[in-house]
Amino acid sequence: MTKEEIKKELRQRLRDTYALELEDAGPVELFYSLGGLVKAVSNEKWQKTWKNYLTEGQKQVYYFSIEFLPGKLLKSNLLNLGILDEVRTTLADINVDLEELANVEKDMALGNGGLGRLASCFMDSIASCGLPGNGNGIRYDYGLFKQQFMDGYQVELPDEWLKRGNVWEIRRESKACDVHLFGNVYMKRLANGKLEPVEENQTTVRAVPYDTGMIGYQNGIVNTMRLWSVEIPVSEEAKYHNLGERRTIEDLTAVLYPDDSQESGRLVRLAQEYFFVSAGIQSIIRYYKKLNLPWHSLSEKIAIHINDTHPAMCVPELMRVLMDENGLNWEFAWDITVKVLSYTNHTIMAEALEKWPVYLMKRVVPRIYQIIEEIDRRYVMSMQGIHPQDLIQRTRLLQNDQIYMAHLAIIGSHSTNGVAKIHSDLLKTIVLHDFYVVYPERFNNKTNGIAERRWMQLANEPLSDVMDELITDSWRKAPQNLKLLMNYQNDEIALKKLREAKLVKKEELASYILETTGIQVSPNAIFDVQIKRLHAYKRQLMNLLHILKLYFDIKDNPEIDLTPRVFIFGAKAAPSYSYAKSIIKVINEAADMINNDASLQDKIKVVFLPNYNVSLAEKIIPAADVSEQISLASKEASGTSNMKLMLNGAVTIATLDGANIEIKDAVGDDNIYIFGLTEKEVYNYYENQDYSSQKIYDEDEELQRILDAFIDGTIPNIEFEGQEIYDSLLKFNDEYFLLRDFHDYARAQEQIDHDYKDAVLWQKKSLANIANAGGFSADETVKAYAEDIWQIEPIFAHTEKEGTTNG
Ligand code: Z16
């Protein structure tokens, strides 16, 4: 597209939709017009892509996820279409700033954290690798809540992301389907002696899909993310004269449950899970029938992935559709189901592993419950004489009136994977060991990855430009090529360029911090970043304990030689997670105390940025010097912000947990700061039951002073929260071993303080992190899923642009 064509198109759209001339349009009209233009460009490729899949009979994967977290799409779409630079300069010609337009777009925040963002990185990578893959999820009217602080407390506001409409989606009413909930079911004996389920008194809702194009990186591919929204079917309108009942139905896709790594256990959540699973499975089977192939070929054309247990009802729902709606017998349907499905586990935290009470499942989806019972019965039967009775009992689906959703997903699929090496090993050796005994061949690892296009090319243009200059732009298509940067480890000019690029992003973040919080920070200070959901196991509190240590150190010795540091936090707490909210409150109060104490001479500052989301991550990550990955060993399945920060040249301070271990292996011991208990040591404490935080406290004056600050008025305004936290660390024996890891953490932090003073030394470490981040590209991750689990192949449609381009 030429500049003139872009301008002409924009003019036309502004006239058609808004009756405005280009000169008179504001950012909102310009954004929607540009969005429409981008959509028109990608629609042509979208149509070609799906027609191509259909005619070529390509095997496709459907990634079922109750969360997707794409963030903003305008610049990502422009980049992937290869027209970012052209559009930017064209707009500049007419005095319009692309950034201002891009900011009009609301974040699409239909996810909580790591799991949802991973799904969106995968969507980007699947399309960019030319793989035939689709997303399947829920179009929530309200995404993850907007976070504000009032008096240091988290306040949640609704996320009205659809208020001005969504340019990217296409409502496809013709592809809608019915989903049945509630009612009752009984088995009727037919004349031929066979049993047939009869369902009665069901509530029927309409699932309407909204499709969004997932644009591949300059390869002509556009895949589909299909999100379902609930509606009352026209045929049922008459039944809903009662407004309350109507509202109950409409509530189904109204809001995203705001819990990350914690289950909610509510009826509406269960209905949400079934709703998008049933709609997705039905639309896949409808598509398959168009191919006119025998049922036994289903697994040659279709793979369905279960992202965490939320979509685990794929197992009984696929069975139901194959048997009840298409007449297959149990054995045949089961064989197909296991071949088609695969499952990813994202956590070993007990409170996050879904278990649904039988009475709820019976009530919400009675036929599905019947099938679950039968799966359980057949599983137990088939294992008799093969495995010991106690193992069979521990692995069955139904236990003490609950349905274990992870068991359902494992038994009903051919592959179960963890998301980092240590996590997959823990699944095999401890958490799911029984299943590993039963199905050793089903277990595998797929370490998470990130879409380097968003997290480097879009988020960090200054660094991207330096990379182009040093190693050419081949890394943009092949993130592995970032490795070439290693040749510049001893090149002082290159190191200086990298340092300057970092400074640009730190200055931008400093301005943002000043605007949003009024806190003045120096871009020359160390920017130390911990950004992730607020959770006890992630140990944001330990970070605060260390900050308080520094606070007392400076108070005791105002002349102390500390490298100035800004501690930056971003974190939302689940609204029902009161302990996490208390931690937010105490960080905010400690921040206030520290930031307003002139005697500290700006040696340390603490900034808690509100409303951490994808867009804010894009501002913080490029500006980070230090990446805090300090979860208790064994608890963080993988982590993905660790990879994004590494890619942007932050140096990691970490426990040997999740993907931190693989990051350490990639960068080498000199380029990461490791501390703390190992996973084995943690498990030893569990076995021996000999951890005493009180004992550590009693023998440690420094920790006494820090912990007492929570209850003796040192930190103001935290009477209640301070006591709660103090008790969690002493009375309740410090569940996540903060006191045990504290000194080793402080030691690692002191080393950082020391090393940062040597600018060249530090920049070398930073360089090694950037250079070795290519191994964590989600492109590599999805290729491994494609080969090992989904058995799908890339299609090489047409590469529009030969060679590489940095557009
Ligand atoms: C989630 O975000 C994660 C796990 C889970 O069971 C539920 C949710 Cl909503 C996270 C893990 O905590 C994190 O370690 C991992 O990197 C991420 O999922 C993606 O795998």
UniProtKB/TrEMBL annotation:
Family listed: Belongs to the glycogen phosphorylase family.
Entry keyword DNA-binding: no
Organism: Tetragenococcus koreensis
Function: Phosphorylase is an important allosteric enzyme in carbohydrate metabolism. Enzymes from different sources differ in their regulatory mechanisms and in their natural substrates. However, all known phosphorylases share catalytic and structural properties. Allosteric enzyme that catalyzes the rate-limiting step in glycogen catabolism, the phosphorolytic cleavage of glycogen to produce glucose-1-phosphate, and plays a central role in maintaining cellular and organismal glucose homeostasis.
CDD domains: GT35_Glycogen_Phosphorylase
GO molecular function, one term: pyridoxal phosphate binding
GO-annotated biological processes: glycogen catabolic process
Alphabetic keyword roster: Allosteric enzyme, Carbohydrate metabolism, Glycosyltransferase, Pyridoxal phosphate, Transferase
An annotated GO cellular component: cytoplasm
Catalysed conversion reaction: [(1->4)-alpha-D-glucosyl](n) + phosphate = [(1->4)-alpha-D-glucosyl](n-1) + alpha-D-glucose 1-phosphate
InterPro entries recorded: Glycg_phsphrylas, Glyco_trans_35, Pyridoxal_P_attach_site
Protein name stated in the entry: Alpha-1,4 glucan phosphorylase
